[in-house]
């Protein structure tokens, strides 16, 4: 057996963007490898050589990793990628994501060896899917493919990522149309329900809350005019809100009035009691049961069963914009971000949120707003 040669590696200073960096190159497992060690301005050549020697030491001593494992696409996806993603995915994300992977990706590439799959194969796959699926679904397929091969690359199972430069075809099938409710439809929608369902619908339309956040509310979370969104429930499993952050939101006058009326009927008014309990009282009502038994039948009578909770959230965003509500305040209320700069460096106080909701409520329900003292003086 041929003895492995001792190698010193190669060290070069190269231009990387606007900076010069030290790049080390060496051979490992019959492949040429390279790594950026640091900026030339912050690392001397001697420091770079020491860093490269530390990388080469286990290789020269014969303690480097052996041959790369060989996976099929299905093996790597099921055994490595999905278990890794489940660590950070929430239940709702895992459910929809794994369904897409199992339905579309595994049948197409399952038995293929991971390192033999080429970019043109993947792009042809997306082109075919564009003839039958919407842009959103095809974009998700591209995202999953990139994620799978990116993880394989980071584990040194493949030498390059064939999905890195995939493009979503321009001509995809039209997605499901989903428009927001108009101001008139909001009133019709709310009038279709009894007290409980009307309150839940208002929390979605005016307060901009997600259904899982609404059903996870406890009485201690709705003290005064503030809603504290600290958890959400999905298929009876509790977790943090979707973006992982708890938040405080304001409450509109109409919602606050209905909430006080509903509180008088509370089966468990204790601080930890659920605002919308199930028949067991100790658990919140199921979203599926709420929609199927209590909301959809009422909406079918007025031909508005298409207005799901996704529509209500879209309605909140659209009517807030139409009413002139500050976008940052509205996004803080809903728990959405407007980009890193707005999300990290600005915040909205409760006075701003209350003013925004009063403005939205007045615009939708045509409620007259009280005049300010300065305006009363002018009219006098």
How is the topology of this model organized?
Blueprint: E1 10-16, E2 19-28, E3 31-39, H1 45-60, H2 73-86, H3 91-109, H4 119-130, H5 135-154, H6 183-191, H7 195-205, H8 211-215, E4 226-229, E5 232-234, E6 237-239, E7 247-250, H9 253-263, H10 287-300, H11 309-322, H12 327-334, H13 340-345, H14 350-365, H15 373-379
Antiparallel strand pairs: 1-2, 2-3, 4-7, 5-6
Helix pairs in contact: 2-3, 3-5, 4-5, 7-9
Describe the overall structure.
The structure is a single chain. The longest helix is centred in the middle third of the chain and has 20 residues, at 135-154. It is elongated, with a radius of gyration of 28 Å. The model is unreliable at 340-345 (pLDDT under 50). The chain folds into three domains: 10-60, Integrase, DNA-binding domain (Double Stranded RNA Binding Domain), CATH 3.30.160; 73-154, DNA polymerase, domain 1 (Orthogonal Bundle); 183-365, hpI Integrase, Chain A, CATH 1.10.443. The chain is built from 15 helices and seven strands. With 380 residues, it is mainly alpha-helical. The strands form three sheets. It has a three-stranded antiparallel beta sheet with strand order 1-2-3, covered by helices on one side. It has a two-stranded antiparallel sheet with strand order 4-7. Strand 2 and strand 3 form a beta hairpin.
């Amino acid at each position: 057996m041929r003895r492995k040669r001792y190698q010193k590696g190669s060290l070069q200073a190269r231009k990387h963007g606007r900076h010069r960096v030290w790049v080390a190159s060496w051979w490992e497992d019959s492949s040429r490898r390279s790594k950026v060690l640091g900026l030339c301005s912050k690392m001397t050549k001697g420091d770079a050589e020491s860093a490269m020697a530390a990388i080469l030491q286990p290789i020269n001593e014969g303690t480097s990793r052996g041959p790369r494992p060989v996976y099929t696409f299905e093996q790597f996806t099921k055994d490595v990628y999905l278990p890794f993603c489940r660590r950070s995915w929430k239940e709702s994300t895992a459910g929809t994501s794994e369904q897409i992977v199992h339905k579309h990706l595994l049948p197409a590439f399952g038995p293929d060896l991971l390192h033999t799959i080429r970019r043109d194969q993947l792009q042809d796959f997306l082109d075919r899917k564009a003839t039958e699926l919407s842009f959103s679904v095809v974009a998700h397929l591209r995202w999953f493919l990139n994620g799978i091969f990116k993880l394989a690359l980071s584990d040194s199972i493949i030498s390059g990522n064939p999905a890195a430069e995939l493009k979503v075809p321009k001509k995809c099938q039209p997605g499901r149309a989903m428009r927001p409710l108009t101001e008139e439809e909001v009133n019709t929608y709310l009038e279709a329900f009894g007290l409980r369902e009307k309150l839940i619908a208002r929390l979605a339309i005016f307060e901009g809350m997600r259904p899982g956040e609404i059903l996870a509310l406890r009485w201690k979370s709705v003290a005064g005019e503030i809603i504290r969104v600290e958890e959400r429930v999905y298929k009876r499993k509790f977790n943090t809100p979707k973006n992982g952050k708890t938040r405080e939101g304001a409450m509109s006058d109409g919602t606050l009035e209905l909430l006080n009326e509903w509180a008088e009927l509370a089966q468990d008014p204790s601080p930890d009691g659920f605002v919308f309990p199930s028949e067991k009282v100790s658990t919140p009502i199921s979203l599926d049961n709420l929609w199927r038994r209590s909301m959809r039948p009422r909406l079918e009578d007025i031909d508005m069963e298409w207005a799901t909770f996704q529509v209500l959230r879209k309605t909140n965003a659209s009517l807030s914009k139409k009413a002139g509500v500050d976008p940052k305040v509205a996004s803080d209320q809903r728990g959405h971000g407007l980009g890193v700069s707005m999300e990290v460096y600005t915040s909205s106080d409760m006075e701003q949120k209350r003013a925004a909701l009063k403005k939205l409520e007045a615009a939708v329900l045509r409620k007259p707003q009280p005049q300010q003292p300065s305006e009363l003086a002018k009219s006098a």
